[in-house]
Amino acid sequence: MKHFISLVLAGVMTAEFKRYVKDRFSTCATVNSLDELFECDTHILLAFY
């Protein structure tokens, strides 16, 4: 989990990452739980990195 948080913190610092997440956010707009949100965020991070 610490590694995941590190990736998030590193990515959030870049405008490119923010732009990418904004473009992909529609895929996460229908999540029904925190677990689904984390899963979706992980997919975005894996796709980004």
Short structural description:
With 49 residues, this protein is mostly helical. The protein is built from 3 helices and no strands.
Average pLDDT number: 67
Question: How far apart lie the N and C ends?
Answer: 17 Å
Rg from Cα: 11 Å
Task: Name the assembly state.
Answer: single chain
Main sheet makeup: none
N to C succession of SSEs: HHH
Low-confidence stretches: none
Shape: flat
Beta-strand content: under 5%
- What is the tally of beta strands? 0
Q: If helices are DSSP runs of H or I spanning 4 or more residues, what is the number of helices?
A: 3
Going by helix content, strand content and strand pairing, the class is: mainly alpha
Question: What's the structural domain tally?
Answer: 1
The helix content is over 70%
Describe what you observe in this structure:
The protein has one domain (2-48). Helix content is 73%, strand content 0%. The chain has 49 residues and is mostly helical. The protein starts with a helix and ends with a helix.
Keywords:
49 residues; 73% helix; 0% strand; flat
What is the topology?
Blueprint: H1 2-12, H2 15-24, H3 34-48
